[in-house]
Write a structure and sequence with these properties.
Layout (H helix, E strand, L loop, with lengths): L14 H8 L1 H7 L2 H19 L2 E3 L3 H13 L7 H29 L4 H24 L4 E3 L1 H5 L2 H4 L2 H7 E3 L1 E2 L10 E2 L6 H21 L4 H20 L2 H21 L2 H20 L2 H11 L2 H18 L25 H9 L1 H18 L5 H7 L1 H8 L8 H17 L5 E8 L2 E7 L8
Parallel strand pairs: 1-7
Antiparallel strand pairs: 2-3, 4-5, 6-7
Length: 440
């Protein structure tokens, strides 16, 4: 009887992730970061498809359904320019999905943890470094090279202009005493706050699993340094999301007897309290909100968004819409991922996306290692941020990169009783965990 040789599948390279995440300052300086992001995702998809079979983790079906609904929602668009901006948002969702698959498969192929995590480490350092640029040079503003090269009909589109302008802070030009809040490499300071809240647990996961090397030293030093630009963002949602994630982490750690994790979380919170003595962030937030109508504007926007959604609950409108409104200056379908997904793509799409985050949080709750505990807090942070911040941008891929690191380790070779079935060349795996670990 002829012996069947096992099929060899080419190993995934790390360099596409390095180009995508590791060169963030370069792409931002060119004004191309957001426009290139979906192209980078296509590159990852091509590598995945050409190398052969791909492992599909828990949540793949929900991802595919969500992407399908978003594509169908394009039938609701009524302006030619809307296809460009809506296509870009679809690209950000697609990037989140592909990065998630790519990182998951890298870890499952036993690629060393420190190597797979390196692109996200470099991205974190970019966020911290550019955040400090916003602290030191808050009024820096320049049109980017990409903005100058684009046709005016495209470059002056509100959404595109925000993505391609080089500015390191965001401020309210109508305020008599504006606060310059760090935002680079993002167009808005809320995006910076989202990245910070999501990546802090990742940094602790990295430090708890990588015990030596120059990158560990740099990451360790970056954590307290990151608090300064984080404070100057004055992001209430950032503190709320990170606080909820840390609270979830502490409760889980105490129940499992991981008191080292508890000490790490409490120490980080204590450092925030100490820094508040020098940068009174609570007073600054109170002062800022007392001088603006940000809270009432948001409530007005939420009310009008909900009324509009009820008129098109299943597919939404395909893109945010500018309306006449007494208070809110932003279009409907902004100011929070819950509202953006619901307005753009309909209530079913929102339910699917939130279900995906809940499912991933449940799956990561099986992690038992220190790094796995820290990574398990990330979907919780992402869930809490959804009513306040809309991370349909490069942060979608950041969130999914970090989640995939933990998810792949939970589904890793320490599990037993693994069965496989194949659908269209994609391996779908069902597992019964025996000894569940986390990122090694």
């Amino acid at each position: 009887m002829e012996r069947v040789q096992p099929e060899r599948v080419a190993r995934l390279p790390l360099w596409p992730l390095m180009v995508m995440f590791g060169l963030t300052p370069l792409w931002w300086a060119l004004g191309a970061l957001y426009l290139l992001w979906p192209i980078f995702a296509l590159l990852l998809a091509v590598v995945l498809l050409t190398r052969g079979r791909t492992l599909a983790p828990t949540g793949t079906v929900l991802w595919l359904i969500l992407l399908g609904i978003i594509v169908v929602s394009f039938t609701r668009l009524d302006r030619a320019t809307s296809y460009l901006t809506s296509g870009l948002r679809l690209g950000f969702f697609f990037a989140g999905f592909v990065v998630w698959l790519y990182v998951y498969n890298l870890v499952r192929e036993h690629e060393p943890w420190r190597r797979v995590a390196l692109p996200l480490c470099l991205f974190w350092l970019s966020v911290v470094g550019l955040g400090w640029l916003g602290v030191l040079m808050p009024k820096l503003w320049e049109p980017s090279l990409v903005q100058l090269l684009l046709p005016e009909s495209i470059s002056q589109e509100r959404f595109v202009r925000a993505l391609t302008t080089l500015r390191v802070t965001e401020h309210n030009p109508l305020s008599d005493n504006p606060y310059y809040r760090p935002s680079a490499p993002f167009p808005y300071t809320n995006n910076w706050g989202t990245a910070f809240a999501v990546l802090v647990p990742f940094v602790f996961a990295y430090l708890s699993s990588v015990r030596r090397g120059a990158m560990r030293v740099v990451m360790l030093a970056s954590l307290p340094l990151a608090l300064v630009p984080a404070f100057f963002t004055l992001n209430r949602g950032m503190f709320l999301g990170l606080g909820a994630g840390l609270a979830y982490l502490v409760v889980r750690a105490m129940l499992r007897g991981h008191f080292g994790i508890v000490l790490g979380a409490v120490g980080f919170i204590a450092s925030i309290g100490v820094l508040n003595i020098f940068i009174p962030v609570i007073d600054l937030i109170t002062n800022r909100t007392s001088q603006t109508k940000s809270t009432s504007d948001r409530l007005d926007l939420y009310a009008q968004t909900w009324e509009a959604v009820l008129r098109s609950p299943f597919l939404g409108y395909g893109a945010p819409a500018t309306v006449d409104t007494t208070n809110a200056a932003e279009p409907l379908g902004t100011q929070g991922l819950v509202w953006q997904v619901m307005f753009n793509y309909g209530i079913p799409a929102l339910i699917i996306f939130l279900s995906l985050l809940v499912l991933l949080a449940w799956r990561l709750s099986a992690a038992t290692s220190t790094a796995g505990f820290w990574l398990s807090a990330i979907p919780v942070v992402a869930l809490v941020l959804t009513p306040f911040y809309a991370y349909i941008d490069i942060n979608m891929a950041v969130v999914m990169f970090a989640i995939a690191l933990g998810l792949a380790a939970v589904d890793g070779p320490v599990n037993r009783d693994t069965t496989r079935r194949e659908l269209g060349g994609v391996h779908l795996q069902a597992r019964t965990p025996i000894a569940v670990g986390a990122a090694r």
